[in-house]
Amino acid sequence: MKLADLHTLFLECNAVCTDTRKIKLNDLFFALKGDNFNGNSYADAAIKSGAKYAIIDEEQYNTSSQTILVNNVLKTLQELAAFHRNYLKTPIVALTGSNGKTTTKELINTVLSKKYKTTATIGNLNNHIGVPLTLLSMTEETEIGIVEMGANHLKEIEFLCTIAQPDYGYITNFGKAHLEGFGGVEGVIKGKSEMYNYLTTHNKTIFVNLNDNIQNKKTKETNRFTFGNTTDNTDVSIRFIDAQPFVTCQYNALEIKSQLIGDYNFNNIAAAITIGQFFKVDALDIKDAIENYIPTNNRSQIIQQATNKIILDAYNANPTSMHAALLNFEKQNGQKIAILGDMFELGDSASEEHQSIANLAQSLHIDQIILIGENFNRTTINTPKTVQFKSFNAFTEGFDIKTVEHATILIKGSRGMALERTLKLLP
């Protein structure tokens, strides 16, 4: 079947789905394969559950007039997404970076939706499957699309850009994330910069934080729109005021009081303000959008539980984000307890990076430090305020967290550690 013909069938459907448990009437089912499943075997179930068509790539499952046989389901999904993107011609804002992608994406969406009908990446569905699904969720009503792109190796952002074909792009930062896949920090910079390369080659607009030296240097000869915590040579000036307890900044003589903790979130807020101004969103609407955005999904959430205030930042972690979170946490008042979980995908740097974070935590004015995970368990500790546990189960068995009261607690670790489970242990 030709791609244009498949797109015509797609337009007859209500949505794209890859999980039979979530099928709704008149969905288009893509039978993707994983390490432990073959989506082809679920095609019949998808149709019986209401799917209008099922895209498959194994002949033996082509048993219905509603099944469509292709050479490769994943490749077809990606090609259809690119075709649909060109069919709509909707302006696309793409973003990537080591830290803060999802928060920044949510802020941008919140700001732009004050003026436009937007469609944005749901959660962090930002990979070779998530980006196509985001594009295919856009309709003719979508005025601006906001696409988050994640990567853990070189050439991935480059590939995602060929699918989404962004008109605008922003890189949050270059940090110590996915070092194993990228081969070190220089690899991270090179990999994330693939977005710059695409935008520059196609003469598109790059949003640049001039306070980031790497961003500034790499985009000097590009079509860029800049911002910074300064009034010098920027298109948009946004002044940082403080982050106690939440980030407050000044823009267009307006004081904006966010509900985001940590001065590291200033740049995320500033990027959303800048993109809002670029797209001519009213300044008061920008202020309202930022001030009413409340973080969710274990990202910089503030939770009051009994007598304890919890900073739940357990969605993910890498050395850069962990370092920033600890420095911000030290500024909190009262008794402070840091519960830190292992950081994943660091490769040969894992031992060094975990020791560095352990050293930093122990050097700060934090009353108690709890390190959880195999990597943190191997670090050398030098203060009695630090305890180590090889696993989450060891932590639950060896530490009576129910005795913790009247404390501010930071919970941060990589997704695989699932440290949000700690909440159920607190009184």
UniProtKB/TrEMBL annotation:
Q: What EC number(s) is this enzyme filed under?
A: 6.3.2.10
| Membrane-traversing stretches | none
Named in its record, the pathway it takes part in is:
Cell wall biogenesis; peptidoglycan biosynthesis
Q: Does the keyword Repeat apply?
A: no
Query: NCBIfam families, per this entry?
Result: murF (TIGR01143)
Recorded GO cellular component terms are: cytoplasm
This one is known as UDP-N-acetylmuramoyl-tripeptide--D-alanyl-D-alanine ligase
Extract one GO molecular function annotation from the record: UDP-N-acetylmuramoyl-tripeptide-D-alanyl-D-alanine ligase activity
Described by its record, this protein's role is as follows: Involved in cell wall formation. Catalyzes the final step in the synthesis of UDP-N-acetylmuramoyl-pentapeptide, the precursor of murein.
Q: Which SUPFAM superfamilies match?
A: MurD-like peptide ligases, catalytic domain, MurD-like peptide ligases, peptide-binding domain, MurE/MurF N-terminal domain
> Where does this polypeptide localize?
Cytoplasm
Instruction: Give the protein family.
Output: Belongs to the MurCDEF family. MurF subfamily.
Q: Which InterPro entries match?
A: Mur-like_cat_sf (IPR036565), Mur_ligase_C (IPR004101), Mur_ligase_C_dom_sf (IPR036615), Mur_ligase_cen (IPR013221), Mur_ligase_N (IPR000713), MurCDEF_CellWall_CoF430Synth (IPR051046), MurE/MurF_N (IPR035911), UDP-N-AcMur_synth (IPR005863)
Recorded catalytic activity of this chain's protein: D-alanyl-D-alanine + UDP-N-acetyl-alpha-D-muramoyl-L-alanyl-gamma-D-glutamyl-meso-2,6-diaminopimelate + ATP = UDP-N-acetyl-alpha-D-muramoyl-L-alanyl-gamma-D-glutamyl-meso-2,6-diaminopimeloyl-D-alanyl-D-alanine + ADP + phosphate + H(+)
> Which UniProt keyword terms apply here?
ATP-binding, Cell cycle, Cell division, Cell shape, Cell wall biogenesis/degradation, Cytoplasm, Ligase, Nucleotide-binding, Peptidoglycan synthesis
Name of the top EC class for this enzyme: ligase
Q: Name one GO biological process term.
A: regulation of cell shape
* Domain Mur ligase N-terminal catalytic: start-end pairs: 15-85
Q: Where is the Mur ligase central domain?
A: 96-275
* Chain coiled-coil ranges: none
Every copy of the Mur ligase C-terminal domain together lies at: 299-378
